[in-house]
Amino acid sequence: MPENLTPNPEAGAPRGKREGKVSNYKIEHFVAPISETPLQGVDAVKETGKPLSMWAEAWRSLRKRPLFIISSILIVAIIVVAALPNLFTSVDPTHCVLENSNGPAVSGHPMGYNFQGCDIYSRAIYGTRASLMVGVFTTILTVLLGTTIGALAGYYGGWLDAVLARLGDVFFALPLILGAIIMMQLPVFRDNKSPWTVIVTLAVFGWPQIARIARGAVIEVRNADFVTASRALGLSRFKALLRHVVPNSLAPIIVVSTVNLGVYIVAEATLSFIGVGLPPDIMSWGNDIASAQTQLRSNPMVLMWPALFLSVTVLSFIMLGDAVRDALDPKARKGA
Amino acid sequence: MRNSHASKALALSAALALTLTACGGGNEAGGNGGGGDTNKVITANTTEPQHGLLPANTNEVGGGRVMDMIFTGLVSYDAKGKVVNELAESIETEDSQNYTIKIKADQKFSDGSPITSSSFVDAWNFGAAAKNAQLNSYFFESIKGFDEVQAKDAKTDVMEGLKVVDETTFTVELSQPESDFPQRLGYTAFYPLPEAAFEDPDAFGQNPVGNGPYKLTEWNHDVNLMLEPNENYDGPREAQNGGINFKVYQSTEAAYQDLVSDNLDVLDQVPPMNLAQYQDDLGDRSVNSPYAGNATITIPSYLDHFKQDEEGNLRRQAISMSIDRQQIIDKIYYGGKVIAKDFTAPVLEGYNDALPGAEVLTYNPEEAKKRWAEAEKISKFGDSELTIGYNVDGAGNKEYVEAVVNQVKNNLGINVAPKPYTSFKELRNEVTKYKMTGAFRTGWQADYPSLYNFLGPLFGTDAGSNDGKYSSEEFDKALSEGLAAKTPQEGAEVFNKAQEILMKDLPAIPLWYQAVQGGWSNNVENVTFGWNGVPLYQEITGK
Amino acid sequence: MISFVLKRFLQLIPVFIGATLLVYFLVFATPGDPIAALSGGKPMSPAVEDALRAQYNLDKPFWVQYGLYLKNLFTFDLGMSFSGQEVKDLLARAFPVTARLAVIAMAIEAVFGIIFGVIAGMRKGKIFDSTVLVLSLLVIAVPTFVLGFVLQVVVGVQLGWAKPTVSGQATWGELILPGLVLGLVSFAYVLRLTRTSVIENKTADYVRTATAKGLSRPRVITVHILRNSLIPVVTYLGADLGALMGGAIVTEGIFNVPGIGNLLFKAIRFGETPTVVAIVGVLVIIFVVANLVVDMLYALLDPRIRYA
Fold first, then answer.
1. Nearest by Cα to B504 from B354, B308, B340
2. Residue of B nearest to A100 (CA)
3. Cβ of residue C151 closer than 8 Å to a chain A Cβ
4. Residues in A 104-133 with any Cβ partner in B closer than 8 A
5. CA distance linking residue A173 with residue A205, whole number of Å
6. Do B428 and C157 touch (CB under 8 A)?
């Protein structure tokens, strides 16, 4: 592999170290002794590769991709804004004076004022934290939960599939709004409303979608030649799922999740809209987008800025997702 | 009802406005001043009626506006809210407690069945009896015998205060003198019913037979209600058009787009998104007219620091004076409200905009700070949080409550926050159980045009809608005196005296009077809006 | 295959009972008293309140309420709404409308999503690919109510090509615009899924083989690349169908479509249990059936997938 630039300390280490692949001795019967082949060096690396070499190789490939570098810089920048909003604005986003309602941009207030006379720029900056948290953590939770359940259902099939997939159907059919109203009533959420309330709610009702995607992808991959091969080589069923099936099913999950990230941030707006989202004193882009609705004709700027911030965030995660997917796919890697 | 009628409807929630039904219609005979096509079927916006169309069960605007077109009562209200006789020949009393009511002879329901005094007595008895579970039953509470028909396991379903004298005469005995009783009789709950209604009230509610200027010919649920002129109607509100097609809208935004593209003829509520521009969009086809409703904020007397004592009163006054009402009206409503000067509404007879003590309703941040500081000396509120609750499903509540919160916060320097409730249902649940932990938005839309309707049910001790648990012996006494007055005019004077007590205690903080922003299409003319903000549909003509 | 389908339909029974029970409980547990809401903030005498509670079975404990509901279900009695209508009439009116809307939305997102996705995937990194990326960002970041409003004003009011709102019949033609608005967000998903899938598959060995044996490019793309790229897309669309049917509240509101979304939303608000439960019950059935169809499509798209 051309990317393999790191020295391999394990080259020549005893073969017994490679757990799981117990069938190595048998293979030797079919291959010429390594010392006799001209490809000795390359083969040596392959045969002693670390168990996670797929991920390691992906990382090596990833870190050199311009798409990855650009998106990482953007994401780091967004995280800095989320963590330290006061570095970017000195205006108090909660200080709203009705006199300034829908006021134009003036010095110190580059984007003007919203309907309630709050500073739009400052609110967008301070809204980053909650919105980013909602987007990222909901995505992580749904991916973890959805992939686990979907992969198990798709891979094992049978009664496990029936139970898990039908469970997903039930959750899917429940109206998010109804669920959200109930969740918000739980004492633990009611008494301390925070972005986590929204995250957990969206995750509880969002996982079946990812599970469905994961299940479909796993069903497609589980019959692939390399899975059959790895099983023939003696890998246990579960390990084959973990090592080969799931990594090769990730592409659609990554695609859907990166789009979801943006959709979740907007969904928070819907929840706020019906009074079960973030409390009004936690700023978020979703909250601002929802309030902008009545001002669509009078002051579309109110909507534009949070939407723009949201777009940049979603764009960076979509680019990151693309880069990761490319890096995970050996065929696409060749082409890159 | 509590969701103000002319406030805005967010796209998600518009259909849910639970506004109290308004009694409709004006009374100028042949109000058709400008001529025009009297055969055109006009289309008007509505929401799906929430219940079957029975007089005593219709308590929201969607059903109310239809009821007022297909039924008529003993009296109706003209555009200014003045009471005019409709089916009543005369309503006479000497002591404000015993009334003799004569109805016009030879009147018919739209199916041809006769309207007699029993049509009223039976309908009212039906509406009052608890077993029929009619939502408006409390309207009959002044009639003698109401308590008996409302009792659990009631032995009778007939109120002893109602007696049929002959075909066209009946008498009403109240349990106490109430001079504004005749004024109430135009309200939906007091409409008569044909005999057929009592056989199967639920079926009747789906397919009602009335006696109003129109009759209901088609009800496509969630889509539209078709009304045709009722040829049996012989009264002051005769239809000047070929019928009304009430189109059901989920949001007023959608209705507004239909209006500007001439696919809808009359809209009685311009959505918030277009409040700033509707006059430009529609030109002289728009109206901004005040109606009998108000918006208030209630800080319940069961809250610590806000009890009905010196400290609580000072704090309520301070909050009231820290609200710049005019600014909110200008910025949030683009001028579409009128600053409140009392607890009632300006279109009512006896309204007085210069009540002594009304200065607590004037914006005065310095005085507000001073009164708050005085209250702080009595007991410390400090950095505690005061929330103002509102229901997000009601129309525009968020915007004005947030504006009020910001003003109080900025002017008093205290910790105030808005508190959203997901639904009217949830908010009312806490309010009626007296479990609120902060202030909350309230408001009232008149059932019938009378000052008492804004005072008795809201601030009388243990009254049905006394959300703040206000109780004042002095005020209760003034209310009874006003009711016992010989004429409504005399009563109004006493009620205004009673309001002076409220100015001191502020059981609710009046914000502004409601006004309706409406418009009509290029295809119709002669559009006017009534005292309750509902268009006088029967007077609209085609062009 | 038949036994596979049969098994799926048998699974419907526990799923249906589970879902209705769960949703019945959720509505039961929502804060607020539906009867108090009925009064609209006006006073109500305790006697009337009791009578209403009894009328809607709200005076009984949860298990009794649900039991009565199930019992009535066997006689196809889905209960009454607060407005005095049969819930099954409500459903019979609203479901066909929403189904038409969902079908249109789905057709739009599938056709445009797949076509754009294939082109973007085949020309990865080129100008078309970047353009559709921006387009998908737009539909993700700009909320439906804005897109819907703008389209309504431009097409319905300014150009006058269609009425701004849908009539009571909600015909296919009238639903095209609302369907477009409804399908936009899902369009972004379908597009990105197709694009990624195509990128993955276009370097596959069988594609090289197909090209090598002289097949035309369109044939390679449609038969070989596309067919093998559709599994994630079909999975997504199957899951989306239910979401489109139950979650079109905003779109239905903008265009005044008398459909399920609005009905469900209102019923939740008013605590009208029979309506909510009935809608969710039907949605669950749709989900299970859609899933079944998707699973059968897998076998069609990928011959290696077989069902016993």
1. B308
2. B331
3. no
4. 115-117
5. 9
6. no
Task: List subunits contacting chain B, requiring 3 or more Cβ pairs under 8 Å.
Answer: A, C
Set of chain B residues whose Cβ sits within 8 Å of the Cβ of C86: none
B464 to C44: CB separation less than 8 angstroms, yes or no: yes
Place of tokens 């959750």: A171
Q: Which residues of B509-522 are buried (b: 16+ CB within 10 A; e: fewer)?
A: bbbbbbbbbbbbbe
C63 touches chain A (CB under 8 A): no
Cβ within 8 Å, pair A262-C246: no
- Checking if the pLDDT of B385 tops 50, the result is yes
* B20: helix, strand or coil: coil
Q: Kindly list the distances between the CA atom of residue A294 and the CA atoms of A108, A208, A290, B9, B277, in Å, as whole numbers in the listed order.
A: 25, 33, 8, 9, 12
In order of start, what are the domains of chain A with their CATH numbers? 65-335 (1.10.3720.10)
Number of helices (H), then strands (E), belonging to chain B: the values are 15, 21
**Alpha helix locations (H) across chain A?**
24-30, 40-47, 53-62, 66-83, 120-156, 158-173, 176-185, 187-191, 195-221, 225-232, 237-240, 246-273, 285-292, 301-328, 330-335
Number of other residues whose CB lies within 10 A of the CB of residue A107 = 5
DSSP 3-state percent helix, strand, coil across chain B (nearest 5):
35, 20, 45
**pTM exceeds 0.90:** no
Q: What's the whole-number mean pLDDT along residues B248-263?
A: 92
Label residue C84 left, alpha or beta by phi (over 0 means left) and psi (-120 to 50 means alpha). Answer: left
ipTM of the shown complex: 0.87
Kindly give the interhelix angle for A195-221 and A120-156, rounded to the nearest 10 degrees. 40
CB-based contact, B534 to chain C, within 8 Å: no
Q: What SS3 class is residue B163?
A: strand
Tell if the CB–CB gap between C30 and A179 is shorter than 8 Å. no
pLDDT in tens, B346-383: 888 889 999 999 999 999 999 999 999 999 999 999 89
Q: Which two tokens stand for residue A265?
A: 């941030």
Q: Looking at the complex, does the CB of residue C120 fall below 8 Å from at least one CB of chain A?
A: no
Q: CA–CA separation, A293 vs B179, rounded Å?
A: 48
Tell the burial category of B153 from Cβ atoms under 10 Å away from its Cβ (0-12, 13-18, 19+).
exposed
Contact partners of C by the rule of 3+ C-beta pairs under 8 A? A, B
**C11 and chain A: CB distance < 8 Å anywhere?**
yes
Flag whether residue A281 sits within 8 Å of chain B, measured between CB atoms: yes
Which CB contacts under 8 angstroms, 24+ apart, belong to B412-416? B412/B318, B412/B319, B412/B322, B412/B368, B412/B369, B412/B372, B413/B369, B414/B372, B414/B381, B414/B383, B414/B386, B415/B383, B415/B384, B415/B385, B415/B386, B416/B385, B416/B386, B416/B387, B416/B388
Alpha helices in B261-364 (DSSP H): 278-282, 310-321, 325-332
Q: Are C239 and A166 in contact (CB < 8 Å)?
A: no
Worst-scoring range by mean pLDDT, B242-256, B307-321, B463-477, C269-283? C269-283
Rounded (to 5) percent helix, strand, coil in chain C: 75, 0, 25
Looking at chain B, which residue has its C-alpha nearest residue C29? B426
Mean pLDDT check: name the lowest of A190-194, A227-231, B406-410. A190-194
- List the subunits that have 3+ CB pairs under 8 angstroms with A: B, C
Instruction: Dump pLDDT digits (tens) for B19-38.
Output: 332 333 333 334 444 578 88
**Contact: B407, A98; criterion CB under 8 Å:** yes
Q: Does B265 touch chain C (CB under 8 A)?
A: no
Q: Which of residues 176-235 of A touch C (CB under 8 A)?
A: 176-179, 181-182, 185, 208-209, 212-213, 215-217, 219-220, 223-224
Cβ <8 Å between C47 and B52: no
Distances (CA, A) of A150 to A117, A259, B353, B396, C293: 47, 19, 68, 43, 17
Cα A4 to Cα C289: distance, rounded to the nearest angstrom: 48
